[in-house]
Protein backbone atom coordinates (compact mmCIF):
# COMPACT_ATOMS: atom_id res chain seq x y z
CA UNK A 1 0.00 0.00 0.00
CA UNK A 2 2.81 2.39 0.88
CA UNK A 3 4.54 1.75 -2.43
CA UNK A 4 1.32 2.44 -4.40
CA UNK A 5 0.89 5.82 -2.61
CA UNK A 6 4.48 6.79 -3.40
CA UNK A 7 3.97 5.90 -7.07
CA UNK A 8 0.80 8.00 -7.25
CA UNK A 9 2.57 10.99 -5.66
CA UNK A 10 5.51 10.58 -8.03
CA UNK A 11 3.20 10.50 -11.03
CA UNK A 12 1.19 13.57 -9.92
CA UNK A 13 4.19 15.70 -8.97
CA UNK A 14 4.83 18.74 -11.28
CA UNK A 15 8.15 20.11 -12.34
CA UNK A 16 9.24 23.20 -10.38
CA UNK A 17 9.82 24.97 -13.76
CA UNK A 18 6.28 24.35 -15.09
CA UNK A 19 4.81 27.53 -13.65
CA UNK A 20 7.68 29.65 -14.96
CA UNK A 21 7.35 28.11 -18.43
CA UNK A 22 3.59 28.74 -18.55
CA UNK A 23 4.06 32.37 -17.49
CA UNK A 24 6.75 32.87 -20.14
CA UNK A 25 4.58 31.39 -22.88
CA UNK A 26 1.67 33.63 -21.83
CA UNK A 27 3.86 36.75 -21.86
CA UNK A 28 5.29 35.91 -25.29
CA UNK A 29 1.81 35.29 -26.75
CA UNK A 30 0.44 38.52 -25.29
CA UNK A 31 3.42 40.52 -26.53
CA UNK A 32 3.18 39.00 -30.02
CA UNK A 33 -0.53 39.81 -30.33
CA UNK A 34 0.03 43.39 -29.13
CA UNK A 35 2.95 43.92 -31.52
CA UNK A 36 0.95 42.54 -34.45
CA UNK A 37 -2.05 44.74 -33.70
CA UNK A 38 0.15 47.83 -33.33
CA UNK A 39 1.88 47.14 -36.64
CA UNK A 40 -1.47 46.67 -38.40
CA UNK A 41 -2.81 49.96 -37.05
CA UNK A 42 0.37 51.78 -38.05
CA UNK A 43 0.32 50.27 -41.52
CA UNK A 44 -3.30 51.31 -41.97
CA UNK A 45 -2.49 54.89 -41.01
CA UNK A 46 0.47 55.06 -43.39
CA UNK A 47 -1.42 53.48 -46.28
CA UNK A 48 -4.25 55.99 -45.93
CA UNK A 49 -1.79 58.81 -46.52
CA UNK A 50 -0.03 57.16 -49.46
CA UNK A 51 -2.85 55.23 -51.16
CA UNK A 52 -3.66 57.91 -53.73
CA UNK A 53 -0.02 58.42 -54.69
CA UNK A 54 0.73 54.70 -54.87
CA UNK A 55 -2.41 54.03 -56.91
CA UNK A 56 -1.64 56.88 -59.31
CA UNK A 57 1.93 55.63 -59.75
CA UNK A 58 0.69 52.11 -60.50
CA UNK A 59 -1.89 53.57 -62.88
CA UNK A 60 0.78 55.54 -64.71
CA UNK A 61 2.80 52.35 -65.25
CA UNK A 62 -0.25 50.50 -66.54
CA UNK A 63 -1.24 53.41 -68.76
CA UNK A 64 2.18 53.66 -70.36
CA UNK A 65 2.21 49.92 -71.03
CA UNK A 66 -1.33 49.55 -72.38
CA UNK A 67 -2.80 52.92 -73.39
CA UNK A 68 -0.02 55.32 -74.37
CA UNK A 69 0.41 53.74 -77.82
CA UNK A 70 -2.88 55.31 -78.92
CA UNK A 71 -3.47 58.10 -76.41
CA UNK A 72 0.13 59.32 -76.08
CA UNK A 73 2.46 59.42 -73.10
CA UNK A 74 1.11 62.86 -72.19
CA UNK A 75 -2.57 61.91 -72.78
CA UNK A 76 -2.72 64.31 -75.72
CA UNK A 77 -3.78 61.58 -78.13
CA UNK A 78 -2.30 60.54 -81.47
CA UNK A 79 -3.83 61.42 -84.81
CA UNK A 80 -5.33 58.37 -86.43
CA UNK A 81 -4.97 56.28 -83.28
CA UNK A 82 -6.71 57.66 -80.20
CA UNK A 83 -8.22 60.94 -78.97
CA UNK A 84 -6.87 63.22 -76.27
CA UNK A 85 -7.89 62.31 -72.74
CA UNK A 86 -7.73 65.84 -71.39
CA UNK A 87 -10.81 66.44 -69.28
CA UNK A 88 -12.27 62.93 -69.59
CA UNK A 89 -11.63 62.13 -65.92
CA UNK A 90 -11.90 58.89 -64.01
CA UNK A 91 -15.56 58.34 -64.91
CA UNK A 92 -14.90 57.94 -68.64
CA UNK A 93 -11.90 55.68 -67.97
CA UNK A 94 -13.99 53.43 -65.74
CA UNK A 95 -16.77 53.23 -68.33
CA UNK A 96 -14.52 52.41 -71.27
CA UNK A 97 -12.35 49.86 -69.47
CA UNK A 98 -14.93 48.15 -67.23
CA UNK A 99 -17.06 47.37 -70.29
CA UNK A 100 -14.09 46.05 -72.29
CA UNK A 101 -14.37 48.77 -74.91
CA UNK A 102 -10.81 49.79 -74.17
CA UNK A 103 -8.18 48.83 -75.13
CA UNK A 104 -9.77 48.89 -78.57
CA UNK A 105 -8.82 46.00 -80.89
CA UNK A 106 -9.05 47.99 -84.10
CA UNK A 107 -10.35 51.31 -85.38
CA UNK A 108 -13.97 51.15 -86.48
CA UNK A 109 -17.27 53.04 -86.41
CA UNK A 110 -17.39 52.54 -82.66
CA UNK A 111 -15.86 50.43 -79.91
CA UNK A 112 -17.96 47.41 -79.01
CA UNK A 113 -18.10 45.64 -75.68
CA UNK A 114 -15.81 42.67 -75.17
CA UNK A 115 -14.37 40.73 -72.21
CA UNK A 116 -12.70 43.02 -69.68
CA UNK A 117 -8.90 42.77 -69.81
CA UNK A 118 -8.04 44.39 -66.48
CA UNK A 119 -8.96 43.81 -62.84
CA UNK A 120 -11.08 46.29 -60.91
CA UNK A 121 -8.01 47.47 -58.98
CA UNK A 122 -6.03 48.04 -62.19
CA UNK A 123 -8.90 50.00 -63.74
CA UNK A 124 -9.20 52.09 -60.58
CA UNK A 125 -5.45 52.80 -60.66
CA UNK A 126 -5.51 53.95 -64.29
CA UNK A 127 -8.60 56.05 -63.60
CA UNK A 128 -6.89 57.67 -60.62
CA UNK A 129 -3.83 58.46 -62.73
CA UNK A 130 -5.88 60.01 -65.54
CA UNK A 131 -7.90 62.01 -63.01
CA UNK A 132 -4.68 63.34 -61.48
CA UNK A 133 -3.28 64.43 -64.86
CA UNK A 134 -6.43 65.36 -66.79
CA UNK A 135 -9.23 66.03 -64.26
CA UNK A 136 -12.79 65.44 -65.36
CA UNK A 137 -16.10 63.91 -64.18
CA UNK A 138 -15.79 61.80 -61.04
CA UNK A 139 -17.56 58.60 -59.99
CA UNK A 140 -21.12 59.16 -58.73
CA UNK A 141 -22.14 58.96 -55.10
CA UNK A 142 -23.87 55.83 -53.82
CA UNK A 143 -27.16 57.74 -53.56
CA UNK A 144 -27.30 58.41 -57.32
CA UNK A 145 -26.93 54.71 -58.15
CA UNK A 146 -28.95 53.17 -55.30
CA UNK A 147 -32.03 52.54 -57.48
CA UNK A 148 -34.39 54.22 -55.02
CA UNK A 149 -35.37 57.17 -57.20
CA UNK A 150 -38.73 57.90 -58.82
CA UNK A 151 -39.14 54.99 -61.26
CA UNK A 152 -42.19 56.46 -63.00
CA UNK A 153 -40.50 59.82 -63.61
CA UNK A 154 -37.32 58.06 -64.71
CA UNK A 155 -39.20 55.93 -67.25
CA UNK A 156 -40.82 59.06 -68.68
CA UNK A 157 -37.45 60.80 -68.98
CA UNK A 158 -35.97 57.71 -70.65
CA UNK A 159 -38.75 57.61 -73.24
CA UNK A 160 -38.23 61.30 -74.03
CA UNK A 161 -34.44 61.41 -74.11
CA UNK A 162 -33.13 57.89 -74.75
CA UNK A 163 -35.73 55.59 -76.33
CA UNK A 164 -35.28 56.91 -79.88
CA UNK A 165 -31.85 55.23 -79.95
CA UNK A 166 -31.90 52.60 -77.21
CA UNK A 167 -35.47 51.41 -77.81
CA UNK A 168 -38.23 51.92 -75.26
CA UNK A 169 -37.29 48.53 -73.74
CA UNK A 170 -33.57 49.53 -73.54
CA UNK A 171 -32.75 46.71 -75.97
CA UNK A 172 -30.64 48.91 -78.25
CA UNK A 173 -31.03 49.71 -81.93
CA UNK A 174 -29.23 50.44 -85.18
CA UNK A 175 -27.89 53.87 -86.12
CA UNK A 176 -26.31 55.18 -89.32
CA UNK A 177 -22.90 54.33 -90.85
CA UNK A 178 -22.47 51.05 -89.02
CA UNK A 179 -23.05 52.54 -85.59
CA UNK A 180 -25.55 51.33 -83.03
CA UNK A 181 -27.02 52.10 -79.64
CA UNK A 182 -26.11 49.18 -77.35
CA UNK A 183 -28.41 47.04 -75.28
CA UNK A 184 -28.28 48.44 -71.73
CA UNK A 185 -30.33 45.79 -69.95
CA UNK A 186 -27.16 44.44 -68.28
CA UNK A 187 -25.39 47.75 -67.76
CA UNK A 188 -24.37 48.67 -64.21
CA UNK A 189 -25.83 51.83 -62.61
CA UNK A 190 -22.34 53.40 -62.49
CA UNK A 191 -21.90 52.94 -66.23
CA UNK A 192 -25.42 54.20 -66.99
CA UNK A 193 -24.52 57.37 -65.12
CA UNK A 194 -21.13 57.53 -66.87
CA UNK A 195 -22.78 57.27 -70.29
CA UNK A 196 -25.10 60.18 -69.54
CA UNK A 197 -22.31 62.38 -68.16
CA UNK A 198 -19.42 61.59 -70.53
CA UNK A 199 -21.30 60.84 -73.77
CA UNK A 200 -19.27 57.89 -75.09
CA UNK A 201 -19.32 56.95 -78.78
CA UNK A 202 -22.46 58.51 -80.34
CA UNK A 203 -24.15 59.23 -77.04
CA UNK A 204 -24.91 62.91 -76.35
CA UNK A 205 -23.72 64.45 -73.09
CA UNK A 206 -26.48 65.19 -70.58
CA UNK A 207 -25.16 67.84 -68.22
CA UNK A 208 -27.04 69.12 -65.20
CA UNK A 209 -28.86 71.68 -67.34
CA UNK A 210 -30.32 68.91 -69.51
CA UNK A 211 -30.87 66.35 -66.77
CA UNK A 212 -30.30 67.15 -63.11
CA UNK A 213 -28.62 64.71 -60.75
CA UNK A 214 -32.07 63.72 -59.48
CA UNK A 215 -33.25 63.14 -63.06
CA UNK A 216 -30.26 60.89 -63.68
CA UNK A 217 -31.01 59.03 -60.47
CA UNK A 218 -34.61 58.50 -61.58
CA UNK A 219 -33.53 57.19 -65.00
CA UNK A 220 -31.07 54.79 -63.39
CA UNK A 221 -33.80 53.61 -61.00
CA UNK A 222 -36.21 53.02 -63.89
CA UNK A 223 -33.62 50.99 -65.82
CA UNK A 224 -32.70 48.93 -62.77
CA UNK A 225 -36.39 48.23 -62.20
CA UNK A 226 -36.75 47.16 -65.82
CA UNK A 227 -33.68 44.93 -65.60
CA UNK A 228 -35.15 43.08 -62.63
CA UNK A 229 -38.77 42.96 -63.85
CA UNK A 230 -40.20 39.74 -65.24
CA UNK A 231 -41.83 39.67 -68.68
CA UNK A 232 -45.55 39.03 -67.97
CA UNK A 233 -46.26 38.07 -71.59
CA UNK A 234 -43.78 35.21 -71.80
CA UNK A 235 -40.97 35.39 -74.36
CA UNK A 236 -39.66 38.93 -74.91
CA UNK A 237 -38.44 38.14 -78.47
CA UNK A 238 -35.50 40.46 -77.92
CA UNK A 239 -37.78 43.31 -76.76
CA UNK A 240 -37.45 44.83 -80.23
CA UNK A 241 -41.11 45.78 -80.52
CA UNK A 242 -43.88 44.98 -83.05
CA UNK A 243 -41.50 44.24 -85.95
CA UNK A 244 -39.93 41.21 -84.33
CA UNK A 245 -43.24 40.12 -82.83
CA UNK A 246 -45.02 40.43 -86.18
CA UNK A 247 -42.22 38.53 -87.92
CA UNK A 248 -42.47 35.76 -85.33
CA UNK A 249 -46.24 35.46 -85.83
CA UNK A 250 -45.85 35.55 -89.62
CA UNK A 251 -43.25 32.79 -89.73
CA UNK A 252 -44.44 30.48 -86.97
CA UNK A 253 -48.13 31.38 -86.71
CA UNK A 254 -49.14 31.53 -90.36
CA UNK A 255 -46.43 28.99 -91.25
CA UNK A 256 -47.92 26.59 -88.73
CA UNK A 257 -51.43 27.07 -90.17
CA UNK A 258 -50.14 26.36 -93.69
CA UNK A 259 -48.35 23.24 -92.43
CA UNK A 260 -51.58 21.99 -90.79
CA UNK A 261 -53.58 22.68 -93.98
CA UNK A 262 -51.05 20.76 -96.08
CA UNK A 263 -51.11 17.88 -93.60
CA UNK A 264 -54.95 17.69 -93.68
CA UNK A 265 -54.94 17.75 -97.49
CA UNK A 266 -52.32 15.03 -97.63
CA UNK A 267 -54.33 12.84 -95.23
CA UNK A 268 -57.55 13.27 -97.19
CA UNK A 269 -55.80 12.18 -100.40
Automatic annotation (TrEMBL):
Q: How does it sit in the membrane?
A: Multi-pass membrane protein
Instruction: Provide the transmembrane region boundaries.
Output: 247-266
Reaction(s) this enzyme catalyzes, per UniProt:
a quinol + 2 Fe(III)-[cytochrome c](out) = a quinone + 2 Fe(II)-[cytochrome c](out) + 2 H(+)(out)
Main location per the UniProt record: membrane
Q: Which InterPro entries match?
A: bc1_cytC-su, Cyt_c-like_dom, Cyt_c-like_dom_sf, Cytochrome_c_Oxidase_Subunit
Chain positions recorded as heme c 2 binding sites:
162, 165-166
- Give a GO molecular function annotation for the protein: quinol-cytochrome-c reductase activity
Q: Which Pfam families match?
A: Cytochrom_C (PF00034), Cytochrome_CBB3 (PF13442)
The segment(s) forming the Cytochrome c domain are 54-134, 149-227
Indicate where this protein resides in the cell. Cell membrane
Q: Which residues bind heme c 1?
A: 67, 70-71
Entry's EC annotation: 7.1.1.8
UniProt PTM: Binds 2 heme c groups covalently per subunit.
| GO cellular-component term (any) | plasma membrane
How the protein assembles, per its UniProt entry? The cytochrome bc1 complex is composed of a cytochrome b (QcrB), the Rieske iron-sulfur protein (QcrA) and a diheme cytochrome c (QcrC) subunit.
Instruction: Please identify the protein, giving its name as recorded.
Output: Cytochrome bc1 complex cytochrome c subunit
Species source reads Microbacterium sorbitolivorans
Amino acid sequence: MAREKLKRRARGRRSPFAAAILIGVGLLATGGIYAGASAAVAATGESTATTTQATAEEGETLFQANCATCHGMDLEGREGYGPSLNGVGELAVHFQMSTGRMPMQMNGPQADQKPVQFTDDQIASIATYVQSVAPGPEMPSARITDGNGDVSHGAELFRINCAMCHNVAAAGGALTQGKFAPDIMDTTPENIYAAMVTGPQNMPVFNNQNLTEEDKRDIISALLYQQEAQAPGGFTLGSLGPVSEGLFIWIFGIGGLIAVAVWITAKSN
